[in-house]
Specification:
The complex is a heterodimer of chains A (166) and B (176). Chain A has four helices and seven strands. Chain A is α/β, with parallel strands linked by helices. In chain A, strands 2-1-5-4-3-6-7 form a seven-stranded mixed β-sheet. Chain B is mostly beta strands and 176 residues long. Helices cover 10% and strands 29% of the residues of chain B. Chain B contains two helices and ten strands; from the N terminus they run E-E-E-E-E-E-H-E-E-E-H-E. In chain B, strands 4-1-3-2-10-5-9-7 form an eight-stranded antiparallel β-sheet. A two-stranded antiparallel sheet of chain B has the order 6-8. The chains are: A alpha/beta (166), B mainly beta (176). At the A-B interface, helix 1, strand 4 and helix 3 of A face helix 1 of B.
Amino acid sequence: MSIQTDDTFPDLVALDHAGRPRSLSELAGGDPLVLTTFRGFWCPKEQAFMRRLVAFQDEVEVAYSSVVSLSVDPPEVNAAFRAGLGARWTFLADPEREHLDALELREHTDTVHHPYRPAVFLLTPDLVVHSAYNGYWYWGRPGIDELRADLREVTRAIRSDWNVAA
Amino acid sequence: MSERCWLALVDAAPSGADAAAALRTPDGAPAGWLAAWIRASKPVRDARRADPRIVDQDGAPATISLVLPERDALTIFDDPAVQGARRAVLADAEPADLVTTLLVDASHFAGSLTARRGPDALSRLRDDPFLRVWAGRLLVVDAGLLGSVPAPPGPVIERHGSDVPWPGGGFPAPGQ
């Protein structure tokens, strides 16, 4: 995986699940951003991981952090997957695979559908990569406790009042 | 005090508002005016604060759901019913053209404004999650007041500061 810690993630623009163009920086909106790339709705590994994220969103929703998931599925498919999961974050679509190769995230073992390789990036509000996880093998993905630790570190770094007593 | 966005229902076209548009019921009966002011202080007695991004003097007509709880019956903003409505807004697969909660102070939910455009706007607004918190009105607003605001990214339902109408606002960038 070429995108590494301390790189600046490209501020890509893609269609959200309602078909509207959105940029990553706009979606971050000044908060930490968890960006996941996933193969597609059909993959059992993605379904399993997304269910973990859906459970985690009950914490994220009160913790000033955004989540974005990116795949080659078109907006209407992403919308259906998102609704089926009960996810309340933005799903981005790259059906033309505009960003796939630039990000070097093409799933090389699927030469038919050419989906994204699963990955998770914890980004600062200005899209600097705090941590990167290669999810090609399922255990390469972060657990919720790892995401929580990453979000704590980024939030501590960007919120001047983290140590409120100081 | 920094400038804020104020919204109010008024009987006639107000002078001094930054934007205003006539309202009609879905069957065409006049229903007053909706006006917006961008200023620090409250412009009229019944004004409530909104996300300033909703105001667009070039905005097209829209159908709106306007929830305005009585001032003496306001629930707290963090009431589970209001939290649930915010979650339902984020879960919607077809986001509205804009949504803002309304505030009169830092503690209470003082209503909401949701706008949609298109042939199914009225039917979609009948499912406005904030209508489960308090009875509202479905109205048509003329051009010249309401724009279009990208859907909140989610999943955050909290306000970025208790006097910031959800889903607007944000925290200062590091170093600011």
